[in-house]
Amino acid sequence: MKNFKRILCVALAVIMVTMVVAGCKKKNQTKGQVIIGTDTEANGDWAYALSSNNATDMAVIQLTDDCSTVVTNFDGDYIWNDKVVKSHTAEVAADGKKTYTIEINKGLVFNNGEKITAENFLIMTLFANSKVGEEIGASSSAWDMLPGGKEYREGTTNKLAGIRLLGDYKFSVTILPEGNSLNELTGEPTQYLPYYYDITYAQFKAANTEYWFGKGWSVKDDGDGAYMYNKDAEFTAENVRDQFTKAQFATSDRVTAGPYNLVSYDKSAYEITLEANPLYNGDFQGRMPSIQKIIIVKTEDDTVIDNLTTGGVEIYSGIADGALVNAALDLIDTGKFKGSYTQYDRAGYGYFSFGCDFGPTQWKEFRQAVAYLLDRNEFAKTFCEGWGSVVHGPYCPAFSMYADSREFLAENLNTYDKDPSKSVELLKAIGFTLNADGTPYVDGSGQIRYKEVTEEEAKYYDDLVVKVNGKILMPAVIKWASSGNSVAELLSTMLVNGDDIKNVGIEIRETQMDFPTLLNYLYRQDVYGLGGDFTVPTYNMFNLATGFNGGAYDQSLEVTTNPAFIADGYNTPHIFDAELEDLAKKMVYGVEEGDYDTYLSYWQKFIVKYNDLLPLVPLYSNIYVSVYPNTIENYKEGPFWGYERAILYADYVG
Amino acid sequence: MAKYILKRLVYLVIVFFIVSFMMFAIYNLIPSDPAMVQLEPLRKSLKPEEFRQRYLALRKQLGLDDPLVVRYARWMGFIKDVKGKHEGLLQGNFGYSVTFKRDVVDVIKVPMANTIILNIISTIITLAITIPLGIFCAVHARKPVDSAIQAGTVVGYSLPTYLIGIVFIYLFSVLLRLFPTGGAKTPGSTYTGIQELLDRLYYMCLPILVLVFTGLAGMTRTVRAAMIDTLSQDYIKTARAKGLKEKIVIYSHAWRNALLPVSTSIMGWIIGVFTGGSLVIENTFALNGTGRLYWTGLNSTDYELVLAMQMFYCLVGLIGVLITDIGYTLIDPRVRIDK
After folding, report:
1. Where residue A368 sits, what CATH number does that domain have?
2. Does residue A521 share a domain with residue A418?
3. DSSP codes, A111-154
């Protein structure tokens, strides 16, 4: 009887375990497929350690290769990936060096079943920062902040002292407070610590050694730095180039560790097919894919509505054009597309910027006067056809800093609501009170205002200033380098050719040019073979757009006053304000990682200062809309969470 | 004949080099810096010094700091490149695409094949329709049926291809559900062999339909004009007076003579098979073709890609003209090109 009970208990236990396992299996079962349309055709370059990849390539990399120590979450914040990292420590030495020691979880595997060990997290860093990597085209600059990085990059040693392999599942990275080399531009070393986002220094992604470099390669460490090792070959570009290139452009059978496997990339049809990776380790929240097959196809905005109607495309992400958004929502409302939509604020905005170092736009009040002449809410409403909003500085509403500063910003930011009378006040305050002949300006005359300026202030405006009785008079004329796009057209209608600007006495002269030429004038860098000199300030207004990638918010180079950086194309509005630069620097290079309150305080001050100095006027920030079919649920995109992330959290319901 | 062909080949080589230099110079005069365009997306992710180093290295790699003539000679393969090797156009190296990060030859293969297949099919269908149609119109010149065909075909000629594409997608895909809206194959399909071929052809139907529709007017009018001219000749009247059947008069006497001017147009179409990547069609139907590739190359100032394509088109054009001239003698024995 006793035995029978034991047997019964064991049998019941076995049944329960079997049921649990079966239940778990069922939970992870994937099914169905979705077709995602994208307007960016893939290049088929899946190497994230090399130079830039386009949006679709990046999406495929994210979908197939996401085993990282540090990742970004839905809000775009950097976080440790607990599914990969078992433990991590950070130690700061007396000399200021900071060492992150990371232990990874056991049991992580690639899609071919191979174990993921510490070596897999180091191999790409060792490659990208080596001379070999440079020869093959890798773009990493991390070597500068790693002890021994310079020697490793130059090829005088094959060991990278700043990277240590401490065991099968443990490694470390040490960061120098100041760079290995003197910056050629400034003559000073680059500062790396303290850095508010120094968690990014500990970001390593697993890569399969054999897949990327061939048989026989591994990472070794004899106690003085990690290095690439192969008993049969030296680590040279010739020995790894072919395998690396093959892995980089493979159209199937890639060895990766992401939620999906690349099944095929059909260049002829612009089609990428991905299938769920049954050996996936789960994302940072342990999420596993629910959809079995994802097909990414090339789609055009012009035909996407037809594609949604006929089922040619089921998910179309990030629709920005207001008319297209309305058409897509009509499809949903009328049932022609059986699906739903998700919307979010764009992490960026369209704007027009000024040249803040010459002409009338060198005065803050003048820039503000121009801003007061445009109804930006109306502009955003018209341009985005109802699917847009306005921001008042270099931020986006999706930032957690913005969410935490909403009241503060509402109280402290100037929204520059349209008010031509304020424009006139500001113009008068800085001396735009004359006519071209030096006589006092009469408000409302419709003539262009002039201001008496010094020779220094008149620099680069020789073609427009007039000399009257020994005085130099500068007109309130802005020279606009326009790309002639739809933003420029609306700007012409609502600002440049409007009555208000004429009535206050300002004129904006538009010159249309192709985009590369516009960039040349913006960066003021001489370009080979043109015979011209783009280094001379010529235009003081540009219409452009910008975007934030999430993660690190570092504006220090965007407002730098260092002539070397400016000559190299940074700080394109040429806004020279020591306080602004100081705030931007202190925000990220003066705050320890984790000290959010201090960071936020600098961030708020920076935004307010920027808003006051107004080197650029934000025009519109789109509200993006993404449509998805009824066959999936829980599909949610965000400014820093594209379809490649959202699809993992979607449940297939058929 | 052999002497003539040899002479023309020499001309062809000279013209090729002149054109190549002109094209190279024109693209290099575009006010843009290919190195900067390529690196610009990395500006925010790289430290300034690293950005500068990479920029300077890329300029060196692309040879942008040398005079135009030196760069041209290097591109053609007359002199050694930055690696110290003769690796130019003459050595079969069409260059490296900075956009696609691969050799131009590898980049061009797939779109070129797509474009050629699309054009071959649409050209054959268009010629099969327009030649008989043109003859028919000429025979029935100035009658209501001729006017109706003229008016009907000119619609495709007059309207922008983009508009026709959109209208056809709406009609045949959205309303009638006969063809897919775009793409080159059934998404996610793993067909092989004949199934794959049929699937690809099915996806090509709508773009071909648009290409045929837009191409009807031109060739129909060319054939019609040539035939009307021929049909008014005295020898046609003589043939009819002799009591020959109308079919024999039209096809044996008139068409043979009308073929000479028409053949130039036909050769243009055949050349177009290789060079006629339609940006509009490829964009509308999301096809990977040479038109789109060329546009991408221009937008990203990918000079080597664009130049390689231009030189290929140039070569096809020059050879096409030579073949046309030789073809004249085959069509019309009265033409003697070696005299």
Report:
1. 3.10.105.10
2. yes
3. TTSPBP-HHHHHHHHHHHTSHHHHHHT----GGGGSTTHHHHHH
Is the pTM higher than 0.90? The answer reads no
Q: For residue A271, list chain B residues with Cβ-Cβ distance below 8 A.
A: 183-185, 187-188
CB atoms within 10 A of CB B84: 7
CB contact under 8 A, A297 and B187: yes
Tell me: do B150 and B254 sit in the same domain.
yes
B83 inside 8 A of chain A by CB: no
ipTM of this complex prediction, to 2 decimal places = 0.77
Domain holding A95, by residue range, is: 66-247
Same domain, A192 and A72: yes
A604 and A540 within one domain: yes
Structure token digits, residue B172: 């045949």
Lowest pLDDT segment from B2-6, B148-152, B315-319: B2-6
Q: What tokens does B296 get?
A: 């991408």
Q: Which of A293, A312, A516 sits opposite B182 (nearest CB)?
A: A312
Q: Which residue of B has its CA nearest to A129?
A: B50
Total structural domains within chain A: 3
Both A99 and A230 in one domain: the answer is yes
Domain CATH for A114:
3.90.76.10
> Does B44 lie at the interface with A, CB-CB under 8 angstroms?
yes
- Give the pLDDT confidence of B213-265 residue by residue, as tens digits: 988 888 899 999 999 999 989 999 898 898 888 888 888 888 888 887 787 77
Assess B64–A contact: CB distance below 8 Å, yes or no.
yes
Q: Is the pLDDT of residue B207 over 60?
A: yes
CB contact at 8 A, A200 and A78:
yes
Domain span at residue B247 reads: 105-161+216-331
Token representation of residue B257 = 């003579």
Measured between alpha carbons, how far is B126 from B213 in angstroms, rounded to an integer? 8
> Would the CB atoms of B49 and A190 count as touching at under 8 Å?
yes
Residue A588 included in any domain: yes
